[in-house]
Amino acid sequence: MVHFGIDSITSGQPPAWKSSRLGMVTNHAATTRDLQPSREALLKRGFNLVKLFSPEHGLDVRGADGHKMKDGSDVLTGLPVVSLYSDKLAPSEEDLADIDIVLFDIPDIGSRFYTYLWTMTHVLEACALNGKKLVILDRPNPVSGKMELAEGPLLEEAQASFIGRWPMPVRHSCTIGELASYFNATRNINANLEVIRCGGWDRGMFQPDWKTRFVPTSPAIQHFQSMLLYPGLCLLEATNISEGRGTEHSFCAAGAPWMDGNAIAGILNEMGLDDVIVSPVRFTPAAPSVKYQNQECGGVRMEVRQPAYFQSVSYGLILLRLIKQIYPKHFEWKPYPTLVNPTGENHLDKLLGIAGSEQLFELPLPRFIAEITKRTQCRNWGKEMEDYLLY
């Protein structure tokens, strides 16, 4: 049975630091195996939790993508909440002054541009700077820890941003605890770091194998299929194609008012990729600030049938190239403004982590396939991480 780091400290022998003044970086998606919010579980078991910190989307996991989150108070525990997706991305010296130890418990989804990972790195640096211990309450990677499924491109340092600070693949196949240990050593951060391991997980498992109910990790990641497809379909953010935000198909669909889903579905299904089924779909994005709000879109919906073989980044790149080729008069690259990139410029470069990425899509199809095959391979990543893998 899979259990999380939070379960290890609330169900077993309590740690020596239980009575220390604890700050916690968390959100409402972080729960025990039995779905009790982690912060509540700690308080009910007598841990001296005094302050909370929240990432993008806020403590309640409802904030819109890329929107600034405010400080506040937690309605569940009454504790003060300091936003780390605001004018600052890391706790300040003042924030940490009345804290002895910082806990980090936020579910990740295994992709470089999902920002919870980078919040962790800012917290890691802040703890090192201010002489505070950081304890990662680890969780399994929901899209598996299979290193053969890791996909690039590897981030180029010049493309560093809050959706990718340091070199690593788009799909990393690691846990937050493993990456914390890796960055702490390789970036010479040298924080006092402890990782509380999760248990019962092997690297071949996907989230449905855990036998726990799925908990949405952000407004647009509402089910396991979204997690699987996200590393590839998130690339649609840099275009005028809807990625399904504001619908039940978020990150499982691609569409626009001018698209015909039948044509694209036919081509993709004819490619013979047995691990994913593509269907025509019509949807109307309804959430505020999403593409084509209240406009009916035609497009395609994808369902991954064989997660153990599915390569999301490659698939997303091919999907983009196909739509651009079929709709040359409609397709556009678009900025994607967020708190951390207010102009939204060069968003595709930041997502893929490489300069001039839009130019790849001007290549003839055979050269395009060859180039993305080369760039998405990251055979050395497993060896790079070898000394830091915990499972």
UniProtKB/TrEMBL annotation:
It comes from the Bacteria. Residues 23-224 form the Peptidoglycan beta-N-acetylmuramidase NamZ N-terminal domain. Signal peptide: none annotated. Residues 228-391 form the Peptidoglycan beta-N-acetylmuramidase NamZ C-terminal domain. Pfam families: NamZ_C (PF20732), NamZ_N (PF07075). InterPro entries: NamZ, NamZ_C, NamZ_N. This is DUF1343 domain-containing protein. It comes from Sediminibacterium roseum.
